């Protein structure tokens, strides 16, 4: 019997709904919220309001695009957390109502686990390379930077974590200092392509073990610019590309450095990256070079599965469905998990 999951993701500022059948994506829709760009970050209240407006039409369209009837859905998977509470409440309440109305199981999904599980999403007419276990994955998003060992589909161990900012925050906060709109990561990536990565050097943190720290880099970047602007008020505008290339280079080399250390420590060479920052071209290329050098079996997700999407919630929900891991109607979202 085939298993069809309706998946809802609403942890931050994207309302996404997907339909997954037996691990294959039938549809995956994302409604972005441009409203936050001019505020320099996600405004929680505006985000929950936009989710409220988007969730029904996006679900309707996702089911339509999947070409299925509502009665064919076997379970509803939703993001329980971590994320913004007001945003999570919209997706959670909607999923509960949907499951109740159809009398089908409800499946809660951890957003971070789902980012890693994105590597197991199957697409029709694709090669669909998937990692085997144990799988070592660098999860880099706007809120998290972790090194994770996946022992099975639903068994994960965190072996490295950031002690302050996430890698995505480093991109976004440094971008904000340069006057870029939120989120700054994609623009820094684009400008970096035209710049010299060795033009400037910024403070590199020295954190023990497999943990990360990015707040010192942000401060070093801020002070560096403050001094240069004193000499030339147009410094940022004139040197944007070099600034972005140098900043990206530092962040990427910190990430790859720690992941390499983790691989050597654990002996795992089945390696991947996941989360919004894994869309970064510097990181993707850097990983390919490192993989070649070290003989890693490398997994880089497709762009559409790097940033927040419901397909990753659906694939995690699918494996939880197979194990009969369901939630009750009394489940509530958790901002922190
Ligand atoms: O995973 P995600 O969509 O949301 C969270 O769960 O946080 O990640 C969003 C983060 C933002 O910080 C954004 O700037 C960053 O991913 N990002 C990038 C790129 N695309 C998205 N950072 C660097 N380069 C990119 N191309
Ligand atoms: Zn995310």
Please give a structural write-up:
The protein is an alpha/beta fold and 337 residues long. It folds into two domains: 135 residues, ATPase, nucleotide binding domain (Nucleotidyltransferase, domain 5); 166 residues, Nucleotidyltransferase, domain 5 (2-Layer Sandwich). The chain contains nine helices and ten strands. It has a five-stranded mixed sheet with strand order 3-2-1-4-5, with helices on both faces. The chain has a five-stranded mixed sheet with strand order 8-7-6-9-10, with helices on both faces. α2 links the parallel β4 and β5. The longest helix has 32 residues. It is globular, with a radius of gyration of 20 Å. The relative contact order is 0.18. The model has no long low-confidence stretch (mean pLDDT 96). 5'-O-[(R)-(carboxyoxy)(hydroxy)phosphoryl]adenosine binds next to α4 and α5.
């Amino acid at each position: 019997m085939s298993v069809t999951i309706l998946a809802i993701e609403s942890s931050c500022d994207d309302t996404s709904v997907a339909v997954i059948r037996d691990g294959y994506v039938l549809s995956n829709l994302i409604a972005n919220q441009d409203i936050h760009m001019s505020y320099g970050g996600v405004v929680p209240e505006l985000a929950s309001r936009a989710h409220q407006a988007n969730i029904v039409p996006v679900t309707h369209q996702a089911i339509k695009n999947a070409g299925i009837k509502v009665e064919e859905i076997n379970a509803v998977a939703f993001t329980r957390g971590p994320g913004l509470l007001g945003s999570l409440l919209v997706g959670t309440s909607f999923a509960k109502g949907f499951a109740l109305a159809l009398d089908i199981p409800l499946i809660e999904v951890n957003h971070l686990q789902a980012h890693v599980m994105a590597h197991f999403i199957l697409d029709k007419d694709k090669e669909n390379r998937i990692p085997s276990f144990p799988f070592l994955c660098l999860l880099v998003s706007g809120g998290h930077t972790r090194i994770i060992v996946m022992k099975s589909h639903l068994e994960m161990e965190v072996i490295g974590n950031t002690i302050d900012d996430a890698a995505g925050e480093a991109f976004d906060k440094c971008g904000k200092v340069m006057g870029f709109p939120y989120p700054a990561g994609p623009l820094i990536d684009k400008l970096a392509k035209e710049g010299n990565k060795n033009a400037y050097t910024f403070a590199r943190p020295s954190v023990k073990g497999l943990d990360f720290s990015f707040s010192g880099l942000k401060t070093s970047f801020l002070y560096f610019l403050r001094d240069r602007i004193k000499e030339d008020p147009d410094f940022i505008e004139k040197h944007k590309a070099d600034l972005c290339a140098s900043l990206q280079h530092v962040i990427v080399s910190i990430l790859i450095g720690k992941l390499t250390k983790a691989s050597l420590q654990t002996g795992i060479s089945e390696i991947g990256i996941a989360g919004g920052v894994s869309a970064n071209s510097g990181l993707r290329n850097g990983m390919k070079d490192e993989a070649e050098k070290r003989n890693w079996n490398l997994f880089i997700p497709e762009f559409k599965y790097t940033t927040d999407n419901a397909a990753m919630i659906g694939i995690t929900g699918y494996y939880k469905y197979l194990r009969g891991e369901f939630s009750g109607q009394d489940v509530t979202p958790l901002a922190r998990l």
